[in-house]
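Practice problem. Given the sequence and the SMILES for pyridoxal-5'-phosphate, write out the predicted structure.
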Amino acid sequence: MSGPPLSDPELAELLGRESRRRESTLQLLASETPASPAVRAALTSDLGAKYAEGYPGARYHGGCDVVDDVERLAVDRAAELFGAEYVNVQSLSGSAANLAVYAAFAQPGDPVLALRLQHGGHQTHGSRANFSGRWFAPIHYGIRAADERIDYDELRDLALLHRPRIIVAGGAAYSRLIDFAALREIADDAEAILWVDAAHLAGLAAAGVIGSPVPYADVVTLSTHKVLQGPRGGMIVASEAHRAVLQKAVHPFVQGGPAMNSIAAKAVCMRESGTERFAEYAAATVACAQRLGDELATRGLRIVSGGTDLHFAVADVSGLDVTGAEAQRRLDSAGIVVDRTVLPFDPQPVTEGSAIRFGTPCAVLAGLGRDDMVTVAEWIVRALEAEVGSTQHAELRREIRLRLGG
Ligand SMILES: *Cc1c(COP(=O)(O)O)cnc(C)c1O
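Answer key:
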């Protein structure tokens, strides 16, 4: 996985180290996939140099006739893939797409109702550390302690009580299907905009592995680099009625010139995401996450909500007497890369947490299948039971490297 030759030896050395790290360790991250070769080719194309502020047919710069067609192609392909009336492909990241949604539908100080961060939400859904929590008035719904699923009764009560401008669904660590139809009804009753942040869900929805939020939501945002194998970037999908406000929100309110090389790469990604190969890969990520969750559960880790419907799950590691942060360090030392996270009702401080979030897209792309998840679960438990830097970890690293052919 090496790129074009670099005349900068210092950086070349670092890139080499990163390639070796990737090839010799197991990536169990929920939000990462290596971009496909065609996406990488688009990213390094001449389009990266082109300034194209504005939209196709209405730019502030000359010489945009080719990039106009590139952007139209990306938009048309995304509209077809998601069955959407309106698409904006310019957002530089998922978070930038989210900022544009706030800009389009809310004024500073307006109430916005979203899933609590600790229950699986996202920083951009009203966290105090983020613009969304500082400039708007977030109200949070949560999951039920009993089954760790969204409490739609609480959600409805909060929506009717606070009359938020926007109701947000989707998150970074909620692994269950979301009842988009129920949310549509609540949003209608509360006269709120329904926004689904599909950063994690978009790839699975495109593949038909889970139901799409697009027919239900006023607006859907997504990242093109999580299950989707596209460039690092964001996208907005909405109904035609919201075209004008969203166009202005992305540019000029949030951004200047778009990254045209990235838009070209998004066009490639939209094409690749409609293929049979992509559908098989997406289905495999879910099958592997479910199997790995089951295998870990039989070995003393509790899976939040008892399982997953998506490509990732959250596992409680407190049963093995480690915190989430220590679990991440031990797994890292053994050559397994995961994210630490918190449980919905975690007794540990946020910086430690009691859980890890594992995801399967990279593992599937590395050639692992559902049955391999038994071995992966064994690796994880062995890694968690040994100290950072131990000989057990060195042995595991070797085993994993050999299995991955790195
Ligand atoms: C990843 C993610 C985002 C956006 O991430 P970027 O890094 O800005 O692309 C937004 N919302 C959710 C729920 C996410 O998981």
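Check your answer against the key. Residues 31, 93-95, 98, 122, 124, 170-172, 197, 199-200, 223, 234 surround pyridoxal-5'-phosphate (CB under 6 Å).
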